[in-house]
Design a protein that fits this description.
174 residues, alpha+beta, 5-stranded antiparallel beta sheet
Length: 174
């Protein structure tokens, strides 16, 4: 569970990046790190769609997370991909459950010590730009307050992506 003041400070810092020149990868890495430091998740990763629609890993909170995200892309199964494809949040999933929707991915995640996962799409209106994966070494689901803060982080990150892309397009048209 987060401290409200810390969450508000992080939201203000993320929003502040939108008024300056910034690197999108730095913003998304900050998003992953903030999720870990404030929300009690063990690891976080962000995938972003290319203009052609293919997902790629752009940020992760650890090397283990980076490798697991790459495995998710390689096997084409996992929560981040589902959140991206559906545009909907993947609610808390027990990775050890026999009924896991991602058997290969779940086995790899459990092998790395993770017990549960959730994912949120990075959406702008009706377009899904990417997704955020959140892993935990416990079975405890995130509280609704944590989910709301995570959604705010994801929305600010999405706005930074949209603004950066718009600025890049405007620069190409000049």
């Amino acid at each position: 569970m987060f401290e409200a003041a810390d969450a508000m400070r992080s939201i203000a810092e993320m929003a502040d990046t939108l008024v300056e020149d910034y690197d999108v990868v730095d913003v998304l890495t900050g998003l992953a790190d903030r999720c870990v430091s404030l929300l009690g998740v063990t690891a976080a990763g962000v995938m972003l769609a290319s203009p052609g629609g293919n997902l790629g890993l752009v940020a992760s909170s650890s090397e283990t997370m980076r490798l697991l995200e790459l495995f998710e892309l390689q096997t084409q199964e996992g929560p981040c991909l589902d959140a991206f494809r559906t545009g909907e949040r993947v609610e808390h999933q027990d990775l050890e459950a026999e009924s896991s929707p991602w058997p290969s991915f779940s086995a790899a995640a459990v092998k790395e010590g993770f017990q549960s996962v959730s994912a949120l799409p990075l959406r702008f209106r009706d377009v899904t730009l990417g997704a955020l994966n959140l892993f935990s070494v416990t079975q405890d689901p995130m509280s609704e307050a944590d989910v709301m803060v995570t959604r705010a982080f994801a929305d600010l990150a999405t706005l930074s992506i949209v603004q950066h892309r718009a600025s890049a397009e405007a620069g190409m048209n000049e």
